[in-house]
Amino acid sequence: MTTSTLERPATKAAPRAARPMRSERRAMPVYYLILIALAVFAIGPMIALLFNAFKNNAEIGANPLSPPTSLSLSNFTEAWTRGDFATTMLNSAILCLGSVVGTCFVAGLAAYALSHLNVRGGNGVVAYLFLSSALPVQLFVVPLFFMWTNLGLTDTRPGLILIYIATDAPFAALLLRSFLLKIPHDFTEAARLDGASDWQIAWRVVLPLAWPGLLTVALIVGLWSWNEFFWAITFIHDPELRPISTSFMAFQDQYSTDWGLTSAAAIFMLGPVVLLFLLLQRKFVAGLTSGGIK
Questions:
Q1: Could you read off the pLDDT of 172-212 as tens digits, one per residue?
Q2: What phi and psi values does residue 30 have, to the nearest 5 degrees?
Q3: Domain 76-289 classification at class level
Q4: Helices 259-289, 2-52: inter-axial angle, 10-degree rounding
Q5: Do the beta carbons of residue 260 and residue 60 sit within 8 Å?
Q6: 166 with 97: CB under 8 angstroms?
Q7: Could you write out the three-class secondary structure of 171-219?
Q8: From CA 15, how far away is CA 199, in angstroms rounded?
Q9: Would you say the pTM of this structure is higher than 0.85?
């Protein structure tokens, strides 16, 4: 009697435990359909861009979504020459490197001060960073242009790098602050007891623990600097100093645009970015989802 009464609940509990598994299995096709739709939505324009890079304007006008009839590389060679990508790509690499290093330096120190130091008016500083990151950058063009002209920073790479750092630092500081807030203050207190200064604590204790956040900031700032066009066309007039985003102006005139050359140029611009993201995608996703420490 006792064994039968004890076994009955176990036999009835098994179907109940299996119900969630069955419902999940039934929902799996729906999940796959959603993922496929998102993949097509994301990859579809890239495929169309790759197709158009091998076509002329007549083929693109007839059907911009069809595969090319031939695999001629004439668009790529002409786009590379007319767009002067050898020069603009090097300039963009210098601008990206300077912007990433400068933004990580400024934003890292600001985030450390706002998260681990008792800064007077820290909440006001955070609100100011939110406000400055939300304002359109076009508001500062006229006074900044006159200031840069008087300082001799127009038509210079350092002048453009300073603008990139100033526009990217508020958002980067807020993002890093969210990582640094999750680092326990026990680490900083222990370092202070050992006689470490705030500078040493920031660079030897706190910021090394926030490497996922720093990597995320570096990738975002690098992408912004690589794709930026507005500041570059406003403050750089020397063709030898212009970044890669300005190369597309070589493929359009007053009345028409060569979309075949433009598509080929877009492949040149997207190639390094896609390759970098594929190499660092795991660390990038980990930086967006993880906290300050594991």
A1: 999 888 888 888 888 788 888 888 887 888 888 888 888 88
A2: -65, -40
A3: mainly alpha
A4: 150
A5: yes
A6: no
A7: HHHHHHHHHHCCCCHHHHHHHHHCCCCHHHHHHHHHHHHCHHHHHHHHH
A8: 61
A9: no
